[in-house]
Amino acid sequence: MSALGRIARAIRAQPALVTVIAPAATRRLRRPGAEPTLLIGTHHKVLTVYLNKVFSLYGAVTGRSVSTGRGPTTDPTAAIIHDDHSAFSPALLSGDVFGIHVRRDPRDLLVSAAHYHKRAEEPQLLTPRPDLDGRSYRDHVNALETFEEVLLFEITHSAGRNVRDMVEWDYASSPLAEVRYEDLVSPRGVETMADAIERWPIRSADRTLVLRAFEHFSALRGAHRDHRHVRDPRSGQWTEHFTPAVQKAFDDAFPGAVSLLGYDAEG
User: Fold this and answer.
1) Is-above-0.70 flag for pTM?
2) Quick one: which of 34, 19, 2, 1 has its CA closest to 215?
3) In what side-by-side order are the strands of the sheet with 80-83?
4) What percentage of the chain exceeds 90 in pLDDT?
5) Which of 7, 33, 101, 108 could be 41's S-S partner, Cβ–Cβ 3.0 to 4.6 Å?
6) What's the CATH class of domain 3-105+170-225?
7) Which residue, among 154, 65, 57, 62, has the nearest Cα to 114 in the 3D structure?
């Protein structure tokens, strides 16, 4: 969808957006000065699609170029870089940048990814694989008899790699504002986002636009609920699915991950 098409669609869905889109767009045209690069760091099943919508709209309205991908597949010259696995290069993170990184309870990430991979349509998940006896990733997880087996498989495969990416993020020296998925999808999500971007070096009209776009595409709104990537945004779902065997396999694979990321081991 083109930038104008994305803007028009958003306004049709929420006419009040025009009151913030117009000032942001006008100010950008009048004052096109250079700004630091905006980095958006997410992980698989950690609001990737949602925040891509927010910042694609933001970029379209304000005239900023947007690049989305993973690591070297993104354009380092773009004004807004959304890395959907938070695989930013050290050189990029040490440059003139600002932005946000989102983490999630790794146990819920595992459950969410396991559900998603049973119905996903990405080509890489539908391609036959020799290591899975010629089955695709999706066919393999759907052939497993129980969801416990799916979770055990995911721990050592795709979802497990995404948990590891999130655990290995450099939380101590990252220049990005750190935010939890659970806080962003809560009823206070807009306030959480407002706190995260309060010190961003952007104009007031642009900050308002980010928050209104965030509210518009919120996971708690019907406009986002119908997207195929969204099954259930609730936190704590792992308590419904983690058997003793899954808990042990998770702890063995990711020792200390839950506490490292700031979550309660007991749920």
Assistant:
1) yes
2) 19
3) 66-69, 80-83, 37-41, 97-103, 177-180
4) 71
5) 101
6) alpha beta
7) 154
